[in-house]
Each structure stands twice: as structure tokens, then as C-alpha cells.
Amino acid sequence: MLQPSATDLPTSREACRALDAADPLAAARAAFVLPPDVIYLDGNSLGPMPAATRARLQQALDDEWSRQLVGAWNGAGWIDLAPRVAAGIAGLIGAHADEVAVADSTSVNLFKLLGIALRLRPSRRTILTETGNFPTDRYVAEGLAGWTGEHRLRSVDRERLAADPASAIDDDTAVLTLSHVDYRSGAMHDLARITAAAHARGALVLWDLAHSTGAVPVDLEAAQADFAVGCGYKYLNGGPGAPAFAYLARSWHAQARSPLTGWFGHREPFAFAPDYAPATAAGQLQCGTPPILSLLSLDVGVQLLAGLDGAALRAKSLALTDLFIARCLPWLGEHGLELVTPQAHAQRGSQVSLRHARAWPICQALIESGVVGDFRAPDILRLGFAPAYLRHVDAWDAAERLHAIMRAGIWQDARFDRQRRVT
Amino acid sequence: MLQPSATDLPTSREACRALDAADPLAAARAAFVLPPDVIYLDGNSLGPMPAATRARLQQALDDEWSRQLVGAWNGAGWIDLAPRVAAGIAGLIGAHADEVAVADSTSVNLFKLLGIALRLRPSRRTILTETGNFPTDRYVAEGLAGWTGEHRLRSVDRERLAADPASAIDDDTAVLTLSHVDYRSGAMHDLARITAAAHARGALVLWDLAHSTGAVPVDLEAAQADFAVGCGYKYLNGGPGAPAFAYLARSWHAQARSPLTGWFGHREPFAFAPDYAPATAAGQLQCGTPPILSLLSLDVGVQLLAGLDGAALRAKSLALTDLFIARCLPWLGEHGLELVTPQAHAQRGSQVSLRHARAWPICQALIESGVVGDFRAPDILRLGFAPAYLRHVDAWDAAERLHAIMRAGIWQDARFDRQRRVT
Ligand SMILES: Cc1ncc(COP(=O)(O)O)c(C=O)c1O
Ligand SMILES: Cc1ncc(COP(=O)(O)O)c(C=O)c1O
What we know:
CATH architecture of the largest domain in chain A: 3-Layer(aba) Sandwich
Bound molecules: pyridoxal-5'-phosphate
Mean pLDDT of chain A: 96
CATH class of the largest domain in chain A: Alpha Beta
CATH superfamily of the largest domain in chain A: Type I PLP-dependent aspartate aminotransferase-like (Major domain)
Oligomer: homodimer
Number of helices of chain A: 15
Low-confidence stretches of chain A: 1-6
Structural class of chain A: alpha/beta
Number of strands of chain A: 15
């Protein structure tokens, strides 16, 4: 795991500006469409639109779909789009291009890979996860286990897993499924260490990289990870509900048997053969026809991220979260806020989460002040620091605004207590 | 099944023009972007772009995603989009709005519903289908059966099923899965009759409406169908790889147990509860975050189709296919072409398929002449007649051009024998 040395933190807004001016990633910000006067700290829910997306989609509509019609599958290369995007993502997660498929949603990909894992460990009956794992990860595992009737989902606390993974994994564990970076706290697991511990107990490991890919370096190859999934619409900036990815390690390409076998995962989809024969490598994880408009949008986001320096992204992510944490720590406690995100770099993703019983109205007041973060039930204010487009001044200003809101009790105004809506 | 009386077929191009001028659906054509000089007979593979799609997508990019950012889930109504599109589709297939979900691909939806069916018939081990069913329907069933290890896929010929469905279904058949309209031949099953025969044997039925929805009337309610799926990108004109739909009859809402349980199918996705509780009705078939750009595009197509008169669509579809068949029949045999599509209205979908050992170069020559159809291996020239935007003159001209190509042997030119590419 790449770990930059601690940053010398700026102590004034001017110092932040100077850092931004010298930032090797400064130019990347211009590649995104960001509304003026908004500090966007929710790119881990929905990344902003790359500037190039608009023209790419227009071309898809005006030239490809409407003029070339069905011929665009070949003529505009739609048929090769998913593998092309997969290759871009592979470079971000330490995978070979043939180990990644872009298809479906993260939920559906979790299902495929859990299904593969259960068949690779037929004598074991348990899917192991964390108590606090992202809901869809838990639901998909619970649903699959309940559907077979022969498996079960078992949960352990994050603390126990992080402290002593071997003790949490027993001989009945077919597969351990975890989020690399926790969606709520922003805490990051030691991917290589937990993978090794699971392998030592004969279990396989599936990593959810939704909150890592594009912001945190991941090296699946080095960790000898078995399976992984991740979202296209967070740090990859692929647009709302962009297709997800799935990683299948080369070691499992030949033996994998997915429960979900659609024609796009067939060796020769357009031979229209009556019987199924899986495509080689991770291509077998493709299933039905991909949503091309959403996939084109993802392609733009992935190529943008793939063109940035991963080490620089990580260094800046840590610099921004370090700065925000340092600016807030002196007064958090006095306003009833608690820092939930670990301060140790090796345990931190690319977000800062604060706990407060009234996190909802605080989040609303912050949004009104121009700092968009989000709320995660029941009590978390979650602030994502996407290094590709955020600046040191953004982290500085966000801390200032939060402080002002807390100091003046602005969040206690009745207008912030309106009914909760989804985000 | 709605069945218009036979049309008086026009016998001149002028008569075709007169029919087009009087066509109650004439105005609908203008709602599509169609390249000049192309007769597009492949809307059953990829429907053309509705004119309104461009502005809708621009708004999604320029205002919703890039300005509202994550707030667009509520602010722009993305969160309610899938149920809205589902309600539009429900009206086209004789379903209640709460019986339809829009999600994922047809392949993934086939999987969910087959999984539900197997659990509703736990003592039965067979998924029954047609030998010639669309490949992904066969692959998904084969993959699921192989993955459980306890089920098998059995195939019967279409002829046998159509002639005597009861004889093909045995006491081990948990679910019969069929395409309503055959992708290759365009032959249409008697949906109500086969459903009743399956029910009489205690089996459930899953209908693939990919080649029906938007072109052929379907009344799932009247037929007491259990399950159905269909594509968004064919006659619904939702754009390449647009999300698919899934129908779950009310009678199964309470008992259904899907193998694929993602957070969007949870009763309260944004409560982030640790345990799964299915949403009511067909909403439980949603899974992960939907691809919003593709879904917005589908919404435009579905609302367009939902605004047209279903009886008029069917009448025109039959008039166009009748006309094309009548124009070709006199000379088909002499050029080695065979009509594969049934002439009986009750057995015909919205396409005309012709068999020829050299269907590939014939299809290429036809495309070069401005008539876009497609080839289906090994020997089928497939011509889709989408009633929403095609005219009688199009059917007339397409027949003329095909005749000219056959008569002059144009298709025998070496340039049409270039390597096959996917379509
Ligand atoms: C009958 C039928 N089912 C399913 C599909 C495609 O399914 P998917 O959308 O999963 O690719 C097609 C595509 O042509 C089809 O004709
Ligand atoms: C860790 C994690 N996994 C999965 C998802 C979502 O999965 P899907 O794309 O299937 O909705 C999220 C969304 O926030 C997430 O944070």
C-alpha cells in the first residue's frame, strides 16, 4: 500500500491557495463541470460530470444512434466498449485487463461473484461479512444464501476483523465479503492482510471497491485477491447509475461457474448457439446488452481518471482529509461532533465522517451554505474528498463553514428539520 | 387477442401513399429521427431515436447531473423514474403498474423470475423451453439449472408446443419459459392458450415479450400469466441497451422469493437497515442503482409508445407485413427464398423473415440499397416492421428493392461476402 509521508499542513487560506497553484493535479479540475459557489464533497455518492461527457453523449445521439442506427454496434464500436472501459479500470486497481468486466450494477456483480465463490468451496456453507457493510452487499449475500437454503450469512464486527481477521474466519466460511473503504466511517481495511488471513483459512475474499477505485490505490494482484466489485458513478465519475465492474482473478478464470450466464458472457454471442459456453477470462461476467448511453458516459470518466497519477491522487486525498480534520479537531468536541474516520493514513479512505445525533439538520445547513456533503443514517455527516477536482481551499472553506454553522447553531433552525429525503 | 380484419392490400405505390396519408399513426413518424433515404426494418433489434430524447438527455447532463449533482435524485425525480417507466410499460402489456419493474437487462430479469419460479415449485426440477428460443433465454436457464445442480433445462420444438402444449409439459416442469414472438421466424405463440395448458399441468410460465411489447398487443392479466420480461431498446425505442422490464403477477407478490436481492428492491433502501425486507409488489425485482442516462432515454420511448393506440399499431403492423408478404410471394420461390413467418395473423408478430442459404450477402446488398434489415444465423433475413414509424410505401419499396437485388443477382457480388460482423 502506497503511503505518502505526512504533509506539512497549511495554516492559512493563502497557504492553501499556494498549494493549489503548485498542485500537479490542478489541471484535472478543469476537466470537470462544477457549479460555481459549490464545494462538492459528495463525489463518493455521485461524481460530477466530466466536461467531455456532453460532447460524447451528443455524438452518441446525433451521429451514432440516430444516423448509424443498429450499425453503430460495429460502426461506432459499441460492441467493444465494455472491455475498453474494463481495461481502464483494471489499471486503477492493480488488475490485468482480462480480469475485469464492466457490466450491470455492483449489486448484480456481487451476486455473480458470491455465486462463483460458493461453487468453488462446495463443502462450506457460510458467507461472512461485516455487521456494518453496505446494505446491498449484505442484502445480496442474504438473498443468495436464503435462496439456496443451504447457506447462511454470518456477520462480524469491523473491529474484530481488522484486529484479528483469522479469528473471525472459520472452516465453514466459503467467502468473506467486505468493503475496502467503509461507506459510513471512511475506515479502510488492510486488503492484503485480510486476504491472506482468509486464504490461510481456506476462504475466498470478495472486495467491494466502491469507495476506493479512483481515489485510493488498490493492488489486487499483489494482494492475490480473488474477486472484487465496484461502482462507476462515484470516484470514476461515470454518471448516475453508471455500470459497475467486477474483477475475477486469473487463477479462477477456468474454474469459475457463474449462476448468471447471459449471451454477452458467451464465447460467441452472435453465433446464436443453443448451448452456453463461457467467454474466456472475466468476459464471462458480462450478461445482457449493456446500457450504452450510461456506458459511454462511464468511458469518459474512466479514461479521465486513468490519465491521472494514482500516487498523486492518493497524496492529495490524504492532504485534503488531513487538512480538514486538523481544522476541525480543535472544536469538534465542544459542538458534540465526533470524528469517526481514522486518523492513521493506512486506515483512511478518501472521506471524513463526523458523528452527531443531529447529523441530518447539520448536513442540510451545510448544503445551504454551499458545501454539499451527505447524511448516512442514523447519525453520520459524510464528506467525500475527491482528489481529482477538489482543492486545498475547498477543504479549508468547508471546515470554516461547518465551524460557523456549529458555532452559531444555524442548523437548529426549523427549516433544516424538514422531512428526510433520499440522497 | 385483438385481431383486425384482413386489410385490402394496395396494389400500387400511389395506393400506398394514399393509405399513409389517411393513417391515424402518420403523425407518430415525425416523433422519430430517421435518416433520409433509409428504410429502417431493424427496429426490432435497435429502435430509432425519438426526437424528444436529445433534449431530455441534454437537460439531464446540463441541468440535472452537472448543476444539481447528487441532489438530482430527488430534485429531478431520478429516484421515481424506474416506477414511472414501469407504469408506462404496464399499459402496453395488460398489466397493473405494480406488476412491472424496470431494471437491469432482459437476461438478468429472466434469471430473477426463473429463480422465483423454482422456489414456488420446489418439488419440480425442470425448466422447459423451446429448442429455438433466443440464446440468452436458454443460456440463463441452463446456467441457473447447472448452478443449483438440482435442476435441468429441457427443450421441445416450437411446433410441438404450439400444436399440443399439454403434451410437452410434464409433472416435473416447474416453469415453462418461451418467447411470445420468435426472434428468428417472427412466429407468435398463443400466449393465453399455452399459459392455461401449463397451469393445468401445475407449471408456471415466463414469457419473453422482447419482440412483442410496443408492436403486438399483449394482455398478461387476461391470460393469467405468471411472469414476463422484455427489452427496452426494440419497439420501445429506449436506446442501445436500455434497461429491461420484468412482470410479476399480483398473485405471486407475497410469495415470490428472488435470488437477487439488492438495495433498490428493499422496502426502505435509504434506511440502510442491515437486513433485507423486500419491497412490495414488483418493486422487489429492482436490484442496484439503475443507469439513469439510459433510463431517461427509455422513459422518452415508453411515453411515446404509451401515447399511441395499441389497436391501431397492431392493425398497421399487420397491414405492413401483409403488404410486404403479398408483394414478395410471387417471386420468392424462384430466387430460392422461403417465407418463414406465418401468414395467419394470429401467429404473426411484427416482422417478416425469409430463409436463404446466402441470407448474409443478401442482407448486405439490401442494406447497401438503403433497406436496413438484419441477418440471423444461419440463414435468416429478418425484416422488422415497426408500426409507429414505418409507412406503407416503405413496405412497398423494400419489397421492390429486394426483388431487384434477387433478380439482378446483385448480392452475388464479392463485396457482400466480407467477413461477418455482429449486429
Ligand atoms: C427474445 C429476446 N430476449 C432477450 C434479448 C436480449 O436480452 P438482453 O437485453 O439481456 O441482452 C433479445 C435481444 O435481441 C431477444 O430478442
Ligand atoms: C460500498 C457500496 N457498494 C455498493 C453500492 C451500490 O451498489 P449498486 O450500484 O448496485 O446500487 C454502494 C452505493 O453507495 C456502496 O457504497
